[in-house]
C-alpha cells in the first residue's frame, strides 16, 4: 500500500474515531439535537444556511419544538431557548465572553463589536458612548429632518415619472447617509444617487452575501470583511488626503488624523474619530493605529446602517399588511400633526402611545440580528439545568426565538402593537432581546430607537404617502409605483 493510501486510511480512521467520540462520549453527548452537527458543525451549518438559503435558524426553532429548551447544534455548541438562562449569561459583570471563532466572521478583532476581552471592550465602549448617546443623536435632528425630506423628495420624483422605487435600497441609503455623518463627519450622499448605492454600501452588501458561509468557514468571510475595512480606509484618505497608513504598526497621532477631523465644508467634525483619537478620553484608552481605526469605523457604519434601515423596512412591511393597524396609526398621526408642515420631533412623537407601540412591536419581530449569538462558558464552568458544562462550551441564544417565546409572548407570531399598551407592557419590555442585554448591549440602541429610524422618517413618510398597499407592494425588493395621499386625506 502506498504512503498516500496509508495517509488516507489514517485520516478516515481518525475522522471516524472522532465522530464516535463526539456522538457518544463528548461532555455534550447527553443533549438532543442534530447528530450531523455533533459530528461536524461547519458542514451542518453550511447545509442549512447555504444549500437551504438561510434556514438554519428555522431548523434550530424546529429542534427546540421537538426536544425542549436545550439542544445541541455543534461539536461544542448548545442552543438555549430560555429567557432566564439568556439573562444570566448576558448580565452585567458576567464571566461569559464572546466566542472569538464565531465573531471573527462578522466583525474585526479589537473593535467595539469584535473585542472579546471584557476589560478592553469596557474601555472602548466608554470611549464611543458619548458619540452615540441620545443627546448626540438629538443634536443631529436637523440633519435627520433634512435627509427625511430628501428621501420623500426622491419618492415624489418616482411618483411623477411613474417609475418604481426600491424601498429597501432607499431605506439603506437614508440610514447610511446619517450614520456616515456621525461616524465619518461627512455623509456619503447615497440618497443623491439614482440607485441609492455607494461604493462602500456595495462592499458591505458583498460581505453580507457571504454571511451563510462565514459561520461555517470563517476564513472565507474574513476576505469579504477585509474588503470593507479597505474601503473604509480609502474613505479616510479621501476625506483627509494627508492621512496615509504606510503600513505603520504604531498608533496614529492627532497630527496625522487632523485632516479627518477638520472642517468638511461647514466646520463639522466626526465625534467618533475625535473620541477615538483622544488619549485622555477614558482611563486605559490607547490610541488606535490607522488600520484599527478603519476597522472600528467599518463596524460602526455596517451596524448603524443595517440595523436602523431594517427597522424602517420591517415597520413598513408590517403596517402595510395590517389594515386596522395602518388606519389606527394614521389616525393618531393626523390628529397629532394636522398638516404636513407640522414639525415632527422626538419629544412630541414619543407622546404618541400607538406609534410607540408600533415601533416596539416592529423591533420585536423585525430585529436586525435574528440569528444566534454565542457566549463561551468561563473557566469555572456553568451549571445548566443541574448539569455541569465544562469551560469553552458555547451557549447560543437567538433574538428571533426569544422574541417569539410562547411562555412570554401571547400569540408570539402576530404583529400586535396593543400588547405594548397593556398593564404588563413594562414587564414585556424587560423581555425584549432585540438590542441584547448587559455590558454587550447594542451601543447604537439610541440611534436605532430614536429619531433616525422611527420617530421622524416613518411618521413623515406615513403622513405624506400613507404607506398604503397602493403606495408599494411589500414583496421581494419592495418595487412598485407609489402615490401620495389624496388631497382630501387631511381635514
Walkthrough of the structure:
The protein is mainly alpha-helical and 491 residues long. The chain folds into 2 domains: 1-75, no CATH class; 76-489, Cytochrome p450, CATH 1.10.630. It is built from 23 helices and 9 strands. It has helices at residues 3-24, 35-39, 41-51, 56-67, 83-90, 100-103, 118-128, 134-139, 141-161, 167-184, 199-209, 218-239, 254-261, 271-276, 290-320, 323-336, 346-349, 353-365, 399-402, 425-431, 445-449, 451-455, 457-465, and strands at residues 70-74, 77-80, 97-98, 165-166, 375-376, 382-384, 387-389, 394-396, 479-480. Strands 1-2-8-5-3 form a 5-stranded mixed beta sheet, with helices on both faces. Strands 4-9 form a two-stranded antiparallel sheet. α9 (141-161) packs antiparallel against α10, α12 (218-239) packs across α15 (290-320) and α15 packs across α18. The radius of gyration is 24 Å and the shape is globular. The N and C termini lie far apart (90 Å). The model is unreliable at 238-249, 258-267 and 468-491 (pLDDT under 50).
Amino acid at each position: 500500500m502506498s504512503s498516500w493510501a496509508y495517509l488516507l486510511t489514517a485520516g478516515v480512521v481518525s475522522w471516524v474515531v472522532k465522530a464516535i467520540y463526539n456522538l457518544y462520549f463528548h461532555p455534550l453527548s447527553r443533549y438532543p439535537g442534530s447528530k450531523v452537527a455533533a459530528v461536524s458543525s461547519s458542514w451542518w451549518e453550511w447545509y442549512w444556511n447555504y444549500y437551504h438559503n438561510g434556514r438554519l435558524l428555522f431548523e434550530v426553532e424546529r429542534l427546540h419544538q421537538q426536544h425542549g429548551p436545550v439542544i445541541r447544534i455543534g461539536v461544542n455548541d448548545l442552543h438555549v431557548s430560555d429567557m432566564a438562562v439568556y439573562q444570566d449569561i448576558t448580565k452585567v459583570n458576567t464571566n461569559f465572553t464572546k466566542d472569538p471563532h464565531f465573531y471573527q466572521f462578522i466583525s474585526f478583532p479589537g473593535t467595539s463589536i469584535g473585542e472579546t476581552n471584557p476589560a478592553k471592550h469596557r474601555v472602548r465602549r466608554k470611549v464611543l458612548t458619548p458619540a452615540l448617546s441620545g443627546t448626540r443623536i438629538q443634536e443631529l435632528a436637523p440633519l435627520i429632518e433634512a435627509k427625511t425630506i430628501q428621501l420623500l423628495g426622491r419618492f415624489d420624483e418616482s411618483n411623477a415619472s411613474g417609475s418604481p422605487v426600491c424601498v429597501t435600497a432607499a431605506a439603506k441609503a437614508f440610514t447610511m447617509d446619517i450614520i456616515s455623518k456621525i461616524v465619518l463627519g461627512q455623509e456619503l450622499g447615497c440618497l443623491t444617487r439614482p440607485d441609492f448605492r455607494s461604493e462602500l454600501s456595495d462592499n458591505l452588501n458583498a460581505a453580507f452575501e457571504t454571511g451563510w458561509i462565514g459561520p461555517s468557514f470563517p476564513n472565507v468571510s474574513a476576505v469579504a470583511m477585509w474588503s470593507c475595512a479597505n474601503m473604509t480606509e480609502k474613505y479616510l484618505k479621501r476625506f483627509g488626503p494627508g492621512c496615509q497608513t504606510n503600513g505603520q504598526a504604531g498608533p496614529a497621532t492627532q497630527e496625522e488624523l487632523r485632516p479627518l477631523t477638520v472642517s468638511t465644508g461647514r466646520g463639522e467634525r466626526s465625534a467618533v474619530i475625535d473620541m477615538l483619537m483622544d488619549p485622555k478620553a477614558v482611563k486605559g484608552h490607547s490610541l488606535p493605529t490607522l488600520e484599527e481605526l478603519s476597522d472600528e469605523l467599518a463596524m460602526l457604519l455596517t451596524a448603524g446602517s443595517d440595523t436602523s434601515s431594517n427597522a424602517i423596512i420591517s415597520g413598513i412591511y408590517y403596517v402595510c399588511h395590517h389594515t386596522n393597524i395602518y388606519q389606527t396609526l394614521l389616525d393618531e398621526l393626523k390628529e397629532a400633526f394636522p398638516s404636513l408642515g407640522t414639525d415632527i420631533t422626538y419629544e412630541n412623537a414619543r407622546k404618541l402611545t400607538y406609534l410607540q407601540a408600533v415601533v416596539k412591536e416592529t423591533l420585536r419581530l423585525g430585529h436586525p440580528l435574528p440569528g444566534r449569538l454565542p457566549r463561551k462558558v468561563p473557566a469555572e464552568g456553568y451549571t445548566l439545568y443541574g448539569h455541569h458544562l465544562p469551560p469553552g462550551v458555547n451557549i447560543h441564544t437567538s433574538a428571533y426565538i426569544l422574541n417569539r417565546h410562547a411562555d412570554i409572548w401571547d400569540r408570539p407570531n402576530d404583529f400586535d402593537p396593543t400588547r405594548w399598551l397593556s398593564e404588563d407592557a413594562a414587564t414585556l419590555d424587560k423581555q425584549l432581546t432585540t438590542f441584547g442585554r448587559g455590558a454587550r448591549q447594542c451601543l447604537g440602541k439610541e440611534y436605532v430607537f430614536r429619531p433616525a429610524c422611527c420617530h421622524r422618517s416613518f411618521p413623515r413618510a406615513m403622513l405624506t404617502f400613507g404607506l398604503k398597499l397602493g403606495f408599494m407592494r411589500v414583496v421581494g425588493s419592495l418595487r412598485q409605483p407609489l402615490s401620495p395621499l389624496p388631497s382630501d386625506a387631511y381635514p
